Amino acid sequence: NNSCDVFGKRVVYSSREKESSFGRTTFNLYLTRLDGSGVRPLTAGGVNQFPRFSPDGNTVLYLKRDENGTSVGYI
User: Fold this and answer.
1) Minimal CB count within 10 Å: which of 46, 61, 66, 75?
2) Are 53 and 35 in contact (CB under 8 A)?
3) What does pTM read for this prediction?
């Protein structure tokens, strides 16, 4: 795992998925419960890292990278 954050009983984390034929590694975000149940993907491709819950826990902020640079994403 690349990075994670906890809010209440929820965990958001970034996980390395695969390396493409061009040498780029894909990182996706996942949301789960503290007991590891209910894992669901939040992103489906790209380089999505360093997820953090907002102070109220309603939004996940993260960094997404592409060939044009890095930007802030939110879910």
Assistant:
1) 66
2) no
3) 0.86
